[in-house]
Design a protein that fits this description.
Keywords: FAD, Flavoprotein, Oxidoreductase. Helix content is 31%, strand content 17%. With 479 residues, it is an alpha/beta fold. The strands form six sheets. A five-stranded parallel β-sheet has the order 3-2-1-7-19, covered by helices on one side. The two termini are 16 Å apart.
């Protein structure tokens, strides 16, 4: 008898899990999606210029290669269309419950099953798989006076398309990847754009290109071309980009490339100084964009580096004075280290996951947590990448979960042993010491205590090897 599986989230992770269950002939699953459609972060982020900084042919499932990408780096509409196509092709729609947010999941020890609660009631499942991701809950800054602003204000991940920005004064608070994408588009129509920067980011050019009909036709009819291109992109990311984050041979090359990009696009020495980071490249996420710097040099754009003191009815006040605005866009990221929040997850003996993670989220292989049987995480702690495609990591994790299902079906609920978790923690900390993320900068990779809870500190080839199949000795079984 197949286990019943609750999948939380219908983004890349949740859809991948459901597809592999379908391919294995397991139809006893339900996808709970709090939003009105599939796509996860690619459904939510519809701001102007939204797109991905991973090449399209790598930012897709290996088992569902897509030959119709129109650009080297895909935009949000194309990525969302790809995910919707996958949901349709594999017949997932009947098992997706949209607008249904999971509020709690509790392991019932007497039954050896999970009680999953939504506003519609409670259901029992053998297995819970979280596919909520790391970038799903927008984070607003804590600035005095925010409710006092008289104009329109919204987070970049909740873009208000009813607002026409033509000729208006727009304040953009934040300068990360989302801001770098939306600022050039907003600057083309707005009367004035003030970009409020707290910390500069390293930026490298984005070698984007359009795939014409001839290229798409070749990818479609000559499969080895697409496979070869995907493999080349993957190998480059592993061979050149990962060493740059690990203090390897390409670290200096990354810095030189970023500085050359800055000097080539920004001629004003004062503006260039404001945009030059004081930490090594990769400590924070490197922005890959070729339009951001030119936008900052426009006559209607001003980079503001004075600290913000408060928001007033008229605009944004800094230590240098008031900057009047009609619209405020908060491009301030996400609650990236609050994994699974605000869902209340309760395991054996009444243990609450939020309490277990009070010092920082952690999971064995980023997938399993002691005292929480049959709970599996996709895109969990320490599985984010700064150099390659997260879709690769998700496929590894889904393959691992699929490998666990026969074990728990035969031997009962399985949970990772604390000693296995301890060994994993030690090896992770040792590997983390070699990475650039601990170089003293603040980033969304770290929690408030400065611990890196999000990123994977080794090549993805290592992760693929250690997740190829579950090791039963690392788990204990209830039966």
């Amino acid at each position: 008898m197949s286990p019943t599986v609750a999948i939380i989230g219908a983004g890349f992770g949740g859809l991948c899990m459901a597809i592999q269950l379908e391919r294995a002939g397991i139809g006893s699953y339900t996808i709970f999606e709090k939003g009105p459609g599939v796509g996860g972060t690619w459904r939510d982020n519809t701001y102007p210029g939204a797109g991905c900084d991973i090449p399209s042919h790598l930012y897709s499932f290996s088992f569902e290669r897509y030959s119709s990408w129109t650009r080297r780096y895909p935009g949000q509409p194309e990525i969302l269309a790809y995910l919707e196509m996958c949901a349709d092709k594999y017949g997932l729609r009947p098992r997706i419950r949209l607008d249904t947010e999971v509020t709690a999941a509790t392991f019932d020890e007497s039954l050896g099953r999970w009680r999953v609660r939504t506003a519609a009631g409670e259901q029992l499942f053998d297995v819970v798989v979280s596919g909520v991701g790391q970038l799903n809950r927008p984070r607003l800054p804590d600035i005095p006076g925010m409710p006092d602003f008289a104009g329109a204000a919204f987070h970049s991940a909740r873009w208000d398309h009813s607002q026409d920005l033509t000729g208006r004064r727009v304040a953009v608070i934040g300068n990360g990847s989302s801001a770098a994408q939306l600022i050039p588009r907003v600057a083309e129509v707005a009367g004035r754009v003030d970009v409020f920067q707290r910390t500069p980011n390293w930026v490298i050019p984005k070698p984007d290109a359009v795939f014409g009909e001839g290229v798409r036709t070749a990818f479609r009819h000559v499969p080895f071309l697409q496979r070869g291109y995907r493999e080349w992109v993957y190998r480059y990311a592993e061979g050149a980009l990962h060493p740059a984050l690990a203090g390897g041979w390409s670290a200096g090359m990354l810095r030189r490339r970023a500085l050359a990009h800055l000097h080539g696009q920004v001629q004003d020495p004062l503006l260039r100084a404001k945009l030059t980071p004081g930490y090594p490249p990769g400590c924070r996420r490197v922005i890959i964009d070729s339009d951001f710097y030119p936008a900052l040099t426009r006559s209607n754009v001003d980079l503001v580096t004075e600290p913000i003191t408060r928001i007033t009815a008229a605009g944004v006040e800094t230590t240098a004075g008031l900057r009047e605005a009609d619209v405020i866009v908060y491009a301030t990221g996400f609650h990236s280290t609050d994994f699974l929040a605000p869902i209340e997850i309760t395991g054996r003996q009444g243990r609450r996951l939020g309490e277990e993670w009070k010092d920082g989220a952690e999971a064995y292989l980023g997938i399993a947590v002691p005292h929480f049987p049959n709970l599996f995480l996709l895109y969990g702690p320490n599985t984010n990448l700064g150099h390659n495609s997260i879709v690769f990591m998700i496929e590894c994790q889904v393959g691992y979960v699929m490998g666990c299902l026969p074990h728990l079906a035969r031997r009962g609920p399985m949970e990772v042993r604390p000693e296995a978790m301890d060994a994993w923690r030690r090896s992770l900390e040792q590997a983390m010491d070699t990475m650039v993320w601990g170089a003293g900068c603040t980033s969304w990779y770290k929690n408030s205590a400065g611990r890196v809870t999000n990123n994977w500190p080794a090549p993805t080839t290592v992760y693929r090897r250690i997740t190829r199949a579950p090791r039963p000795a690392a788990f204990r079984f209830a039966r």
